[in-house]
Structure formats: C-alpha cells, structure tokens
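In the laboratory, one determines a bound structure by crystallizing the protein with its ligand and collecting diffraction data. In a computational setting the workflow is compressed into a single prediction: the sequence and the ligand go in, and a structural description comes out. We illustrate the idea with FE2/S2 (inorganic) cluster.
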Amino acid sequence: MVSTSQPISTLTPSVSFNDQIHQDGEIPLTHPSVITAKPAKILICQKSDCRKRGSDKVCALLEKELAQRGLEDRVTIQKTGCLKKCKSGPNIVMLPDKTRYSKVESKQIPGLIEQHF
Ligand code: FES
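The predicted complex, in structure-token form:
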C-alpha cells in the first residue's frame, strides 16, 4: 500500500512541459504540441469525372514525390469520393490546412509538396 502525506489532488508535476523542450530545440514526443498535431494528409478524388481528367496519374505522382522526399511515413494519401468540383478535376485537398486545388497538373506536384510539407 502506498501512503503519502499529501492528497493526490495537490500534487504537481516536478517538470513543466516547457522544461521538457531540450536545449537543442528538439521537442520530445510527449510534448502537447506534438500530441495535438493534426496528421498531414492529401485527399484526392477518385470518382469518374476526376479520373477522366487524370486523378490516377496525379495520385501516382504524389506517392512518388512523397517517397523521393522521404515523407511517405508522415503524409498519407487518401482516395475519396466526389469533392463536388467535378468539372474542375483532378481535385485534391491538403490537410490539415484544408487547401483545395483543382485542375491539378503533373508539373505542379513537386511545388505543392514543397509548399505544404
Ligand atoms: S468527381 Fe471529382 S470532384 Fe466530383
């Protein structure tokens, strides 16, 4: 049995979260800013209108570009249903900032990956 002279509700952590940031600037994985970080993701419409306009090719190039930059573990690609911009396909959405891109062309992909991730 554990006994303590202090009620549990009055105990305070001996180290604050700010104290956990290392002197070299590295933030430990237990830091709240890391725990609450929203996952990076690319949504890409795979319905018929976007597919007709090249979303399969865009998806393959996104995967290739992420792999070349070593980002394949950090950024996931999720194929979705219609994003309601069918005539402007291929359509993608960058998360977590929810930026939408329409009429995405192959030559834009390196710049988009660079800009968002
Ligand atoms: S088919 Fe892609 S947005 Fe509708």
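The pocket of FE2/S2 (inorganic) cluster is lined by residues 45, 47, 49-50, 82-86, 89, 91 (CB under 6 Å). Keep in mind that any predicted model is a hypothesis to be tested, not a measurement.
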